[in-house]
Amino acid sequence: MAVAVPRPAAAPPRRRTRPQAAPRPRPAPQRRRRAQTRAGVGGRLAPFRLALIAVLIGIALSAIVYLHVSSLRATMQIGELRTQAAATLNDATNVQAETEQRLADGRVERAAAAYGMVLVPSEALRTLPVRIPRDGQTR
Question: What distances in angstroms separate CA 4 from CA 7, 16, 40, 132, one per listed residue?
Answer without folding.
Answer: 9, 35, 94, 151
